[in-house]
């Protein structure tokens, strides 16, 4: 049977995702398909230089610092630069703020435009045809499927990301976080809350 073919690289991969990634990396390097030095640079980039932990820092600073929040909403790239957050696919970012009256949600109806420096690699669902079509037509139903039920009076505004403009949702600061510092606040900010398909964690 095909699944019993031990010469096929996939048959050598363990079931645990982290181990599968490491095993796949080992196979690619052994076959000469990937340069280990280049792989190390790529991994280091996605672990430290881009990703949702950077977006979380931006949001946490906005929650804690009114001056920074005002700058972020006026000129997101200038605010991001203050924290050293820059990079390709993040040159033209617009920050939109959730309020008790409005919940913001981001989609790219044409492809999968996404602020990589802030949020890292886009999730598979963000690129799916179903999300791209339904987020515009029936955003409340889509949010409900993500486990987000909004108050009746809170409207949903959907932003269509493009190659020219990408969006960052600034979620509302959770209640009970008044005494928390920025580092602690950042742990409450999820990737999905910065897309608008989720909410921050409770403290």
Describe what you observe in this structure.
By secondary structure, this protein is mainly alpha-helical. It has two domains: 35 residues, no CATH class; 145 residues, Nitrile hydratase alpha /Thiocyanate hydrolase gamma (Nitrile Hydratase, Chain A), CATH 3.90.330. Helix content is 45%, strand content 11%. The protein is built from eleven helices and four strands, in the order αααααββααααββαα.
Q: Which fold name is given in CATH as the topology of the largest domain?
A: Nitrile Hydratase, Chain A
What is the C-alpha radius of gyration, as a whole number of Å?
Answer: 19 Å
| Separate helix tally | 11
Q: What is the CATH architecture term of the largest domain?
A: Alpha-Beta Complex
Percent of residues in helical segments? 40-55%
Q: Which stretches of 5+ consecutive residues score pLDDT under 50?
A: 1-10
Structural class: mainly alpha
> What percent of residues are in strands?
5-15%
The sequence of SSEs as H and E is HHHHHEEHHHHEEHH
Largest sheet: 2 strands, parallel
Fourth CATH level, the homologous superfamily of the largest domain: Nitrile hydratase alpha /Thiocyanate hydrolase gamma
Notable traits:
203 residues; 2 domains; 11% strand; two-stranded parallel sheet; single chain; mainly alpha; Nitrile Hydratase, Chain A
What's the topology here?
Layout (H helix, E strand, L loop, with lengths): L16 H14 L5 H14 L2 H13 L1 H9 L1 H7 L10 E5 L4 E6 L8 H4 L4 H4 L1 H9 L1 H7 L9 E6 L5 E5 L11 H5 L4 H5 L8
Parallel strand pairs: 1-4, 2-3
Helix pairs in contact: 3-4, 4-5, 8-9
Describe the structure concisely:
The chain has eleven helices and four strands; from the N terminus they run H-H-H-H-H-E-E-H-H-H-H-E-E-H-H.
